[in-house]
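Possible race condition, two jobs.
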Amino acid sequence: MYYLIQLLLLVFLQNIYFNMIMITVRKFFLVLITISFVVACSSSSSDDSGPTEPTDTFNRGSLLINIADNIIIPALEDLETKLSTLKTDKQAFISNPNQTNLEALRNSWISTYKVWQYVEMFNIGKAEELLYSFQMNVYPTNTVDIESNITTGIYDLTHPNNNDAVGFPALDYLLYGVAADDTAILAKYADSNYTEYLSNLVDQMNSLTSTVLNDWDSTYRSVFISQTGNTATSALNKFTNDFVYYYEKGLRANKVGIPAGNFSAIPLPDKVEGLYSKVYSKELTLIAVQAVQDLFNGKNYSSSSTSASFKSYLVSLERNDLATIINSRLDDAQQKLQALNADFTLQISDDNTKMTEAYDALQLVVVSLKVDMLQAFNISVDYVDADGD
């Protein structure tokens, strides 16, 4: 009996010892598995973190140099040359207001207006300071203010209150809309108040352009090309925002969206560009879209050569897909515009759906420029969008 009790006790103790060993082993393997899992996760996280963003090594200075030297300054030089011709033809007309001189003046006006489509987006430096675009192309022009200025002979064309009574749209009215037909228009210019106002408008446009160009040639170019940093006040960020803003507001909204009624309860055909000449609203819009596309691609104003651009910047950031989309959408927008009547007023009256379709095509480009391109460049939007689009 004594030996039996000892045997049972020994078996009991052996079982306890064995269980303790098994528990220890299980704990060891549990710890080992846990460590292995953590290491595996850490390794997986390191290996599977996804593609890294490409480092921005693009030479922003080369972009600004190309924009200044091959696009902005040559376009301003061309505009100044065209305005000089306009001034000469204006002088001939006011000296002898006949049909031949009227036609010559009209041709100079539209030739100069086309060049303006390449310049209007450059709202930076002296142009921003002088409110250059407001002095050159606010439409529709205010015919009541124009007639009041002519009648009284008392006016300050540089005053903001006259922004809608000067520039290309005011000339559009004076050359095409001041009377019912050409005979009546020529009769108006028997009044020296009309010839004086016409003369002052052209002289002011010429003076403003020379001031802006001289500033680029003398001091602003060096300032512009040096400000390559990614700050709200750098030339690169401001110009990029101005470019997008012009496309969104000055081109898409003003030239197409507002007249088509995209921002109002009804279409507003009296707000088209080239209202009185009637046949140029489509052409001016197409030139403006081409000017935007040329700048995006870094195309030289005076030749077909290209250099550093928004497109090449995107390519350097491995966003060639976005560059291709932007060009494709600009091409599509031009196709929609090509299908329109030369006179947008008639197009709106006859089939406004085509106008709104052109607007929709232009709007797709806004998304690519304002959201995708600016994000790729890490540039923040610096203006408030309040038109509900």
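Job #2 (started ~2 s after job #1):
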Amino acid sequence: MSLLNNVMDHALDDGYAEASARRAAEGGGLPRTLRAKLGLAAGLALAAVVVTLGAAQTQISAPVVAKEREELIDRIQAETTAVDGLAEDIERLRREVGERQRAALEQHGGDQSGLVSLLSGATEVTGPGIRLVVDDAKATDRGGGGPREGSGFSDTGRVRDRDMQRVVNGLWQSGAEAVAINGQRLTALSAIRAAGDAILVDNRPLVPPYTVLAVGDGKRLATRFQDSADGRYLHALEENFGIRSSVSAQDRVTLPAAPSLIVRTAQPRTTGTGTGDGQGAADTGKGTS
């Protein structure tokens, strides 16, 4: 009987009773699962409030943002139009300056005005000459096979700025009277340089193949160039690195005038002083670098 009485008096284990009392004291009597659900519901409600407030604020500020965007677009268009206008003015002024420089060269060149205009690139030139085409090797990637700067032979099959410098200087030395590359007229002050993947002539990028037109005695000019050191240099590029080239005499070639001229000095030499010969002289330099 005592065992039955003990079971009836202690129907719940003492450990369970203590755990139940502790949970009641900590959570105000709410089960842990219920407390978690209530916390999640509170978080969702707070997030809903934040999203609602954000949407309301966005809707309120939308007209202001749209107006500012339209104003910014209008300003950009206005500035773009202004820049285009300035670019047109610059180009017009450049043409005007070039025309006046050409007129000055022709006017003050004296008996040699035609020669001065020819050497300075001030006028268009038409006459017999040669057509020399220089191109990269067939297997060369035109998408960017490395920089074209170089001081020696190319081991990539790509024509470099130094190669074109030697070609042009070789033509001058072989008797060319005027030279142009891809329609870009060369003068005594022209420079052939490279910038990454492009060869520049007077800061204007060129795209291969490079077509060089030179005015002169066509057959004689072609023969003298091919026999020169620079002609042999180009032939070595063909044999060793696959660079392609072809030269042919032409009955008639036309070279445009240089797009811009820079006249440093132009004054007559006085006779009887120093080594002056009495002829007009202009500081134009010679050769292509």
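The two ends are 123 Å apart (CA to CA).
Logs attached separately.
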